[in-house]
């Protein structure tokens, strides 16, 4: 079966810095795939390369059998991919509802209302805060909003960049539960996480990135027991 997302030999540069080095990976429909690695390994770069910003300097990105490497970001999003970016990036001066509308900017009114109901079903907290300015909410609530905003476009593939960074343990557990709930609704998830333990626990498969290179690829369960992963990423 053709993978939903495929990166073939991707190289991504920032000027002279090569942040992704010949990366090939696949995400199949219905999977949660986790990408783990140290700070600066190139995880964000890879997710953003899928979104077309920055662009790969060589290699190709395929989504549902189509080469999307050179498409502008807004067209990539319309293909059925959405991202909840690192640092959440909600619009602080806009309300929850207004932020959600931004995630569905290309939808008609009915689809926006349906999307909002769907997001409020997943995140009852956001319904309670619907008219609150996003900048006044807690980190966990802002993260829920960032994920909710990404879901507004009804993506088939959701990219999540560090969704639990800086959050309290209880909130982290909630976010991981929500990621699993999103997958059980049929959305495929490609997750970048510092929290390797939890990320691998919920993952069907995972990739380990070091200095821009994929150095390991296996099921989540196997990576959790891999001695190198345990030593480098699980504090064993
Ligand atoms: P972190 O968890 O710290 O975000 P990461 O694994 O996501 O790390 P990237 O943010 O992708 O890693 O960074 C990979 C490399 O690219 C690093 O050396 C970083 O300094 C560099 N880099 C990232 N963004 C830029 C940029 N806009 N300009 C120049 N270099 C960058």
Automatic annotation (TrEMBL):
Residues covered by the ABC transporter domain: 5-236
Pfam families, A to Z: ABC_tran
Metal-binding keyword on record: no
GO MF term (any one): branched-chain amino acid transmembrane transporter activity
Xref: InterPro entries: AAA+_ATPase, ABC_branched_ATPase_LivF/BraG, ABC_transporter-like_ATP-bd, ABC_transporter-like_CS, BCAA_Transport_ATP-bd_LivF, P-loop_NTPase
GO biological process: L-amino acid transport; neutral amino acid transport; organic cation transport
Coiled coil: none
Domain of life the protein comes from: Bacteria
Keyword line: Amino-acid transport, ATP-binding, Cell membrane, Membrane, Nucleotide-binding, Transport
Transmembrane segments: none
Keyword Transmembrane helix annotated: no
CDD domains on file: ABC_TM1139_LivF_branched
Family: Belongs to the ABC transporter superfamily.
Name recorded for this polypeptide: Branched-chain amino acid transport system ATP-binding protein
Species annotation: Simplicispira metamorpha
Lineage of origin: Bacteria, Pseudomonadati, Pseudomonadota, Betaproteobacteria, Burkholderiales
């Amino acid at each position: 079966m053709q993978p939903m997302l495929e990166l073939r030999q991707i190289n991504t540069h920032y000027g002279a810095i090569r942040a992704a080095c010949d990366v090939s990976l696949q995400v199949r429909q219905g999977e949660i795939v986790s990408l783990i690695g140290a700070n600066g390994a190139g995880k964000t770069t890879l997710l953003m390369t899928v979104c077309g910003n920055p662009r790969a300097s060589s290699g190709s990105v395929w989504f549902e059998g189509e080469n999307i490497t050179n498409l502008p970001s807004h067209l990539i999003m319309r293909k059925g991919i959405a991202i909840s970016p690192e640092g959440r990036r909600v619009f602080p001066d806009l309300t929850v509802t207004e932020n959600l509308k931004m995630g569905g900017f290309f939808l008609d009114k009915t689809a926006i209302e349906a999307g909002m109901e769907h997001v409020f079903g997943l995140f009852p907290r956001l319904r309670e805060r619907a008219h609150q300015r996003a900048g006044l909410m807690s980190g966990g609530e802002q993260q829920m909003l960032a994920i909710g905003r990404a879901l507004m476009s009804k993506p088939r593939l959701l990219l999540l960049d560090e969704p639990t960074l800086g959050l309290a343990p209880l909130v982290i557990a909630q976010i991981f539960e929500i990621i699993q709930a999103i997958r059980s609704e049929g959305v495929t998830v490609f997750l970048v996480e510092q929290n390797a333990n939890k990320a691998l626990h919920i993952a069907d498969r995972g990739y380990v990135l070091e200095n821009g290179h994929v150095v390991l690829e296996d099921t989540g369960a196997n990576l959790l027991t891999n001695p190198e992963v345990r030593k480098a990423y699980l504090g064993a």
